[in-house]
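Schema walk-through. Below, the input block comes first and the output block second. Nothing else is stored per chain. Lengths vary across the set, and this one has 157 residues.
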Amino acid sequence: MQQSIIIQEAKSEQDILIAEHFYKMWLDIGIPQDAIEDDYQVIIIQFIENARQKLCYKSFLAEIDGVIVGSISCQLYAGLYPSVIKSKYRQSGYIWGVYVEPEYRKQGIANNLTNTAIEYLKTIGCTRVILNASPAGKSVYQSLGFVESNAMHLDLD
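--- output ---
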């Protein structure tokens, strides 16, 4: 039976929930608990507060039957290098922290959250959306039209 999914903008008092989902996301993709900072909540909430002030940050929650089952965060992309391209040609938004509780996965919730974030990023002038997909999330984003980019990485450990 398909349950009704309600997507709503998160309030700042729900930042702690966003922090918890972000923490669970890292655990889900295999990061050991002892590799995560003990004060991760403080770190995440400070990041969110800064992004809210400087990068048009917003987060959204998915709710089913009064229970918050997922979340997503998005903001203007701060960049890795000086931006010399005019924003009307390239203003990137960044989506991060997509999380859905395990028992609610594969019901379209991540898809709905991502579409909501994309729509918000369009309203603030974004012409491109960037995200880093987990292996499990890759097919969700591909179904929404995301394509792999030329980003490369080298692990030095």
